[in-house]
Amino acid sequence: MPYFEDIRIGDRRDLGSFAFTAENIKAFAAQFDPQPFHLDEEAGRRSHFGGLAASGWHVAAAYMKLTVANIKREFDEAVARGETPVPSGPSPGFRDLKWIRPVLAGDTLSFASETVAKRELGSRPEWGLVNTYNSGTNQRGELAFSFMGAVFIPRRRA
Amino acid sequence: MPYFEDIRIGDRRDLGSFAFTAENIKAFAAQFDPQPFHLDEEAGRRSHFGGLAASGWHVAAAYMKLTVANIKREFDEAVARGETPVPSGPSPGFRDLKWIRPVLAGDTLSFASETVAKRELGSRPEWGLVNTYNSGTNQRGELAFSFMGAVFIPRRRA
Question: What is this model's ipTM?
């Protein structure tokens, strides 16, 4: 991760893609969101989704997995360059999470994160707050998932 | 689930509680959010969380599990009463998800959902949109988690 000072509005990061399969859709749903249209092809076809559909929380978890993999990769690369890596901060929450289209078995979403705002925090001088627009787009180029994220990022020590 | 017409602003539903343990915190994190403060007690203590902390997505998944359990229970109760159960609809997304306080190993959150708004949909006469305020409160009575949810609910056929 860069320090707060090195982050620029408009920075865009491709996070990679995640393939949703009947198998991983059902496995996630069985653990966390066991509704019929997430567990059974026929129930999915009969539902408003029109097919076996990933839980919305599965889509969010796929985004998170790719984000954490990126954090780890950047951490390791900084260590490899002999730098002290910048630790990632916590998130206070997010806004406007939208499940725009069904994500069905066979769909692959590509996730990206773009910096849309940043500000210093009077109350916590060691951190700044960065706002991101995060999206998941399917293999047909259709936006399926988005939210406005927020994360505390360490500031460079004076 | 009641039909859209039978839902009243101010309706509150206690969803039950979920106990976060070192074991289930680490198991969730290993699968979906493998950051050190979610995986290791010592890393958690050294972090801004001050202890082994549940992933924010784990907190959201616990809410979802309890919500689905409630949907299932109401569905089964309707069947037992000889009624045709009202199927639950999809969610278009949600707003203002807030991770207000760390959820640490040993914490138990009680979740609740309150109806705050409802409206008919011109474009989809078979459904209405219901907005809920959802919260998770810890064993000390402190609000730890909240978001504004939205869900499509079937309307009673004329």
Answer: 0.85
- CA B21 from chain centre, in angstroms, equals 18
Min Cα distance B123 → chain A (Å) is 15
- pLDDT per residue as tens digits for the range B7-34: 999 999 999 999 999 999 999 999 989 9
Spans of chain B, pLDDT less than 70: 158
Say how far apart CA B24 and CA A61 lie, in whole Å: 16
B53: distance to nearest CA of chain A, Å? 11
* Prediction pTM value: 0.90
> Is B123 an 8 Å CB contact of chain A?
no
Please list every residue in chain A whose beta carbon sits closer than 8 Å to the beta carbon of residue B35.
Answer: 68, 71, 88
Determine phi and psi for B114, rounding to 5 degrees: -125, 135
Q: What would you report as the CA-atom Rg of chain A, rounded to the nearest whole angstrom? A: 18
